[in-house]
Write a structure and sequence with these properties.
alpha/beta, 12 helices, Rossmann fold, 45% helix, 350 residues, six-stranded mixed sheet, 3 domains, 434 Repressor (Amino-terminal Domain), six-stranded parallel sheet
Length: 350
């Protein structure tokens, strides 16, 4: 690995003294906004993390793992964390959640700040539920922090471990079931493509609609239930208020917004509109009518991700004991894909 950048490198790149650079990076007084901005820009471009991080990393007990999520209002994350925590407990480790899209939308600034904080707080590893920027992926690698993606794919590195669902086949199964009911007017209410599951889910739904001769509308919403409600309401109002024969809700927030809207408007499920949603949740069977869902089994995905990360961290600990560089060792088998099950209840018309 190339030599890590130093405070002197940041000083040279910014053209400012080491004293000024140090105070700017520690957010101390006596540094002008222009100088602080210049220092932060240079540090980011060099991939520099303050030396206190390096000092702490050398003392790292590798006992805490971070799980980066994007809007924990999605029940998917609750079962995911259950699987992760249960698996980590066996190795004496624990997990903390870093939500970088609390309100349902993501910004590069939130992501950058989160990754910087995780490096400085000596996290042993990261499980990320959405793709990180290439810069942040490389930054974690530079500091020998192993990374495992779940339900998402890395943007520029096919070596990084991941546990994903075969979303294309799962979506084809959803479409085939709607076709069995004879529904030919489908609406797919879905979240932004930042969440990489969107791409394969939409591709599968589009292909299913093509094969079964269904008319398909793709409707994108921000990834929260209030936005889903407003987006779907605006769409229906533009079309005279009549809903499609079948709605496919892309995840829990999309399903919540859809059901809320139809309840407010007196639209009967499944008599007026059938609904199938992605991602099982604890009370889906208790709704009236019970909700038909595509179940990824996120708890099992969490177990697989935590097992992979645990092995990598344990190998790093052994490398340090031998006096070797603790570079994360990734294997081809660390990239795993699991299937999903369609749980048929009554919201689809069954």
């Amino acid at each position: 690995m190339a030599k890590k950048p130093t405070l002197r490198d940041v000083s040279r790149a910014s053209g400012l003294s080491i004293y000024t650079v140090s105070r700017a990076l520690s957010n101390a007084d006596g540094v002008s906004p222009a100088s602080r901005e210049l220092v932060l820009k240079a540090a980011r471009e060099l991939g520099y993390v303050p030396n206190r991080a390096a000092q702490e990393l050398r003392k790292n007990t590798r006992s805490s793992v971070a799980v980066i999520t994007a809007s924990t209002s999605n029940y998917y994350y609750i079962d995911l964390m259950k699987g992760i925590q249960r698996t980590l407990r066996a190795s004496g480790r624990t997990a903390v959640v870093a939500d970088i899209a609390v309100e349902g939308y993501h910004t590069a600034e939130h992501e950058d700040a989160t990754v910087q904080h995780l490096i400085q707080s000596r996290t042993a590893g990261v499980i990320s539920t959405l793709p990180l920027s290439p810069h942040n992926t490389r930054l974690l690698a530079d500091w020998d922090i192993p990374l495992v993606f779940v339900d998402s794919q890395p943007l520029d590195n096919t070596r990084i471990p991941s546990v994903t669902t075969d979303n294309f086949s799962a979506s084809m199964r959803v479409g085939a079931h709607l076709a069995e009911h004879g529904y030919t007017d489908w609406l797919f209410l879905v979240y932004p493509a930042l969440w990489s599951t969107r791409l394969e889910r939409e591709r599968g739904i589009r292909e299913a609609a093509r094969r079964h001769g269904a008319a398909l509308t793709i409707l994108e919403s921000e990834n929260d239930s209030a936005s889903a409600y407003a987006t779907l309401a605006a769409h229906l109002d533009q079309g005279g208020g009549t809903p499609p024969r079948a709605v496919i809700a892309g995840n829990n927030p999309m399903a919540h917004g859809t059901l809320h809207l139809f309840s407010d408007r007196g639209v009967r499920v499944p008599h007026d509109v059938a609904i199938i949603a992605y991602d099982e949740f604890a009370w889906a069977s208790l709704l009236d009518p019970p909700l038909t869902v595509l179940n990824e089994d996120s708890e099992h995905i969490g177990v697989l991700a935590a097992r992979t990360l645990t092995r990598i961290i344990d190998e790093q600990v052994e490398a340090e004991r031998r006096g070797d560089q603790p570079t994360p060792a990734y294997r081809p088998e660390d990239r795993q894909e699991v299937s999903a099950d369609l749980i048929i209840r009554r919201s689809c018309g069954c």
